[in-house]
Amino acid sequence: MSDLHGLYQEVILDHNKKPHNFRAMAEANRRAEGFNRLCGDKVTIFLKMDGEQISDISFQGSGCAISTASASILTDAVKGKTRAEAESLFQTFHNLVTGHGGNGKNQQPAGLGKLAVFSGVSEYPARVKCASLAWHTLHNALQGNQELVSTEIEEQVPGEIR
Amino acid sequence: MATTHHEVLGSAIDAPQSGSLDVYKIREDFPILKQKVNGKPLVYLDNAATSQKPQAVLDALKHYYTVDNSNVHRGVHELSQRATKAYEDVRAKVQHFLNARESREIIYVRGTTEAINLVAMTYGRKNIGAGDEIIITAMEHHSNIVPWQLLCEEKGAVLRVAPINDSGELLLDEFKNLLNPQTKFVAVAHVSNALGTVNPVRQIVELAHRSNFPVLIDGAQAAPHIKIDVQALDCDFYTLSSHKIFGPTGVGVLYGKAALLEAMPPYQGGGDMISSVTFEKTLYNVIPYKFEAGTPNIAGVIGLGAGIDYVNRVGLENIAAYEHELLAYATEQLTKIPGLRIIGTAKEKAAVLSFVLEGVHPHDAGTILDQEGIAVRTGHHCAQPVMNRFGIPATTRASLAFYNTKEEVDALVKGIKKVQEIFA
Lengths: 162, 424
Known about the structure:
The structure holds 2 protein chains of 2 kinds. Chain A is of the alpha+beta class. Chain A has helices at about 10-15, 65-80, 85-100, 130-145, 150-155; strands spanning about 30-35, 40-50, 55-60, 150. In chain A, strands 3-2-1-4 form a 4-stranded mixed beta sheet. In chain A, a hairpin with a 4-residue loop joins strand 1 and strand 2. Chain A is globular, with a radius of gyration of 15 Å. In chain B, helix 12 packs parallel to helix 15.
């Protein structure tokens, strides 16, 4: 299996320590909550939509380094984008972390920018749900879906043990 | 085949040793421990989730399916009689293991979870009504919370929770304060899976019996570590899971006092639990069969028997003494690590080390330790109320067994330091 530094890259560790856009947003007109039952990770995504455009985004919550950094980088990545662009980026990101992206190994899909630091996640199937929790939650917020997102269901991760 | 089986059983541990345990010899009996994980020797420290199986258990399962496989309590043919004998012999083994009065007090179930559900759905449904109270503790596993919540919801009964202190010990005085004429049942863990705390179950039973209501002890985490004597404890129900005591998954035991079991309605209907069936009326079988509807997990039961034999050969007193020493060593080593806080520091403790690292989420710690070949549990350990009590979302948990070594504890310490380096 890959070197740990493939997973815990400097950028991820930095965003974990000092997450961007980490705040509640009073003027948000959309919000959604995500929860990972297995590890207890929680995230709330706040959106200020200007028509189809994400004019502002923030998040709050608690979780592991992967989920916190993912949420932080997500907010940077989709701010100013349209709903369709954000959804498309989610798809690209999802392919990246599940190892379905690109034409061959080590080939990353184009247009990822900073999100490419999550390429190491595909080597750690147990951590895919950590990286994608914020994105599933964003998806729900964009859909105006108020239901709690659970990556347990989204990523087909089985339940709990003693 | 049978001879081979017995030879393997006796291979590494020739005779019960007194007061000592050769861990390196014991490790030879657990083939799974010999592998490498991520290029490093496996350090298996997730024994509270499930234990590894000695060769003797694997051989017993293979022997059953290769030689004796047949349904129990049904056929007059040779194989069925062999399978029935092997299956029922284990009942006597479990009886002696728990020091129960009679073998009919031993009921096979799928595991501790089903054992507790069985009691809630039979004894509970019959004897607990609106306004009645059930007491549990703040350190229970979800499997000793949710069945009682379901019962309370159905009956309009009330669940009371005895609190714990900052060390993770039950506050016995607070427990006493909860007792009142409405109290009808107590369900308590013998050993906490998340904290390792050993509860004063004998005292709890004594207090409950003064007011004449029964006590269930969840022994899932105790049975692999502590000699259990249900008569000395005088508990009314005791539960254990085979897979935590070096046997296969999917099987467990409910011990219940015969008089209580006899008065309880059946749990599930089906074959084997009846003595006669017509469309007008069905007469139930005697205990324990009344509670064992359908073809049971025969192989699992036989494997459990082999697991108990193995534990008996090593000797629970030796196991307890060795694990105590290992726990003391691990506690000392972990306490030295700056930024590490042990969650669960009870005076009476089984070999469980739950901890949190400053600035590191347990999930990240778990992934990094896994890269070092170290298997630990990270998360809430199916005990979310315990996590809430300590104000943390999760812990990293290293749970030890008698096949773990001081060198493995050292590997854990080294792994934790690596986690801290990455997150420095």
